[in-house]
Design goal:
single chain; 242 residues; alpha/beta; Rossmann fold; five-stranded parallel β-sheet; 5 strands
Length: 242
């Protein structure tokens, strides 16, 4: 049997994981130790893992996370008001599949962005499309899209994103035009996608971030009702890294 020809055909069909596993088997003594069923299962598993890993890398790259983060890196020994059991439940991702939202508040440096990104990486691992923005960057992108005619295309892209992370909400006031654009975004995603919002401000102070009170009511009603809450406390974690 011409294994090189078979190997090339597998690559031509873009079965790269299958091809690599096939090469490893034919180049070693493993071939004799596999039954036919085991060999086929091994090759299929290799192809599946290769495709999954490529998709995961693509999802992470497209998400544009602020930082790499994982649950294994979260320090539960520092008293920050975290509910470990709740975080572990959130890690499973059922809340995203049910299109629930999550609000993380607390002073600067306590780990809001890190937890949000860790949940984002976990969503990517579950093959869920994720996007990360700071609140200011998102508002700037929407404003630019409105000006250059790509607004509906950009909003459609965000609407189809299963998990949207909006970091550092409330650092500046949202003007009238941005209020309406944010309402468009929230209304489009409400009930069909999930959003994580982090903020130094407690939720009760968010209303003051909007210059348009009526629109603020509509936005906050959709974002806060039924959302999960994590209220972090304590000193900046940056202090403990020194």
């Amino acid at each position: 049997m011409n294994t090189n020809a078979t190997f090339e055909k597998l690559h031509t069909m873009r079965l790269h994981g299958f091809a690599q596993a096939y090469r490893e088997i034919t180049d070693s003594t493993q071939e004799k130790n596999f039954s036919l069923d085991e060999c086929i299962a091994h090759l299929i598993e290799a192809e599946y893992e290769d495709r999954y890993n490529k998709k995961l890398k693509r999802l992470i790259r497209q998400a544009r996370f602020k930082q790499q983060a994982s649950f294994e890196q979260i320090n539960f020994n520092q008293p920050r008001g975290m509910d470990k059991n709740m975080l572990l439940r959130l890690q499973q991702g059922d809340w995203i599949k049910k299109s629930r939202d999550l609000i993380i508040t607390g002073p600067t440096g306590v780990g809001k962005s890190f937890i949000a990104c860790a949940l984002g990486f976990q969503a990517c691992a579950q093959e869920l499309k994720t996007m990360y923005f700071t609140a200011n960057k998102l508002l700037d992108r929407m404003t630019l899209a409105k000006a250059d005619g790509s607004y509906f295309k950009f909003m459609d892209k965000i609407a189809k994103t299963k998990l949207l992370i909006i970091d550092d909400f409330g650092l500046k006031q949202i003007d009238h035009k941005q209020c309406n654009m944010l309402l468009d975004l929230v209304d489009e995603r409400h009930g069909s996608s999930s959003t994580i919002i982090t903020s130094q401000l407690p939720v009760k102070s968010w209303f003051d971030c909007f210059k348009e009170p009526t629109v603020a009511d509509a936005i906050l009603d959709r974002l806060t009702n039924g959302s999960y809450r994590i209220e972090l406390q304590g000193e900046s974690m940056r202090k403990f890294r020194k």
